[in-house]
Amino acid sequence: MSTQNAQPENVAAFDPLRAYRADLERISSVLASHNKSAFHRKDQDFRMWMAGGIGIIAGAFLLAFLPRFLPFSADSHVASLVMGNDRINAAYAMINSVDPIGVKKMQWGAGFYEASGGEISACLEKARQTAKDQKCNITVPAPKEGL
To answer: Where are the transmembrane segments (predicted)?
Structure first.
């Protein structure tokens, strides 16, 4: 046998191996692209969660600090919206968390004014006109329990 005749037989013997090698390279490149996209997906998910977390933290800070810079009485509106009450009950709830007795006194004072508001206003107007202290008859409501 000559060496020339042996070469084509060897080349033919390696053809299936070359085909397997080409298939393996093709499959490995496809798998690498899938893994690369999966890594990109993980990075995107991480960035999305970080942006969401930063947004929640920034929103909490804005909700806490922005109302004090708003004009007029917007801060009390924000407090009432956050607490789910009207502005007066939200104020009572905030004061009650610090000074429960003070809230009871304010509520009693509101009841006192409701009971004697007309007499107090008339007496105040008379004191203004005369520029002297006035003695007035008023109705004092009985205090509720706890005051």
So the answer is: 46-66
What pLDDT, on a 0 to 100 scale, did the predictor assign at position 138? Answer: 79
pLDDT of 20-68, one tens digit each? 888 888 888 888 777 777 677 778 888 899 999 999 999 998 887 887 7
H helical segments located in 66-140: 74-83, 87-98, 100-130
Give the residue among 72, 71, 73 at the shortest CA–CA distance from 81.
73
Domains of the chain by residue range? 3-100
The residue among 114, 104, 121, 105 whose CA lies nearest residue 140 is 114
Of the two residues 125 and 43, the one the predictor is more confident about is: 125
> 147, 29, 138: which is closest to 21 by C-alpha?
29
